[in-house]
Amino acid sequence: MIRVEIFSTQGCDKCAQAREALKAVAEGLEAVRWREVDILAELDYAVELGVLSPPAIAIDGVLVFPSLPAPERLRVELTRRLEARAKLGSAP
Amino acid sequence: MKREILSEPDAQALTVGKLARLAEVSADTVRFYEKEGLVAPARKSAAGYRLYEKDAVRRLRFIKHAQACGFSLAEVRELLTLRGSGTACCTDVKSVAVHKKLLIEAKIRTLQTMSRALSELIARCDGGLLPLDACAILAALEAAEPHRRATEEMPTP
Q1: How confident is the model at residue A33 (pLDDT cuts 50, 70, 90)?
Q2: Would you say residue B39 lies in a domain?
Q3: Domain count, chain B
């Protein structure tokens, strides 16, 4: 299961629109878990990952997109990771 | 900012000195903020003195308070732009504040790590009046040096 976490603050309408498009990408793929992190509620975790300028996206606990990517870029990144995992899983 | 040259004295206008007194800053601070583009005189008197609107007092207090909260001059400028923008909303200001908080929290953690490293060094010292070449702190710092040099001298692939 790939863990995708989006870091943002509550009440940001600009974030909300972009978030929905990215969420649709993540939820459209199997074996991807989407989580929305409120930076102020999980400040320590956000700082630990190096989030400085929200909104940002981490994948499997690593900050991969310090600013929000286009939905297609997220899809490409997640697909690449899923394929890499599938290869590892089928390796003898 | 548009400036006018007045031939008549204006009771509402503030000179640099008066503005500085009301905002509780020095006249040099007002000039510095002006040079940085954070505040500007509304007009000049016939004698060439810079004259400011009363709102400049609020603006200067805002700048001072924002700086006290850790905002850089560039960030203060951004906040002032948001303050004067008709299209900005509170979430824009909040995102600037959240960004600043994240930077401060990251800095705190770095300082905590440095503090822990110093505690470890200090714990190595027995005190006393040993000569410097027996100093455990200096020895520990020097011990880190060869490793760093070795890393630096590693050939690049």
Answers
A1: very high
A2: yes
A3: 2
* Inside any domain, residue B44: yes
| Nearest Cα residue to A7 out of A88, A75, A64 | A64
Beta-carbon contacts of B123 under 8 Å, excluding residues fewer than 6 positions away, are none
The pTM score is 0.66
Per residue in B7-31, pLDDT tens?
445 567 899 999 999 999 999 999 9
How far apart, in Å, are the Cα atoms of B150 and each of A42, B137, B142, B143?
39, 21, 13, 12
Count of structural domains, chain A: 1
Tokens, residue B8: 């008549």
Nearest by CB to residue B106, choosing from A11, A40, A52, is A52
Q: Residue B58: beta bridge partners? A: none
Residue B71 half-sphere exposure, CB side, CA atoms within 13 Å? 20
Q: Contact at 8 Å (CB) between A13 and B91?
A: yes
**Across the interface, which of B91, B99, B105 has its CB nearest the CB of A53?**
B99
Q: Which residue of A lies nearest to B107 if distances are taken between CA atoms? A: A47
Written as six digits, the tokens of B69 are: 């909260």
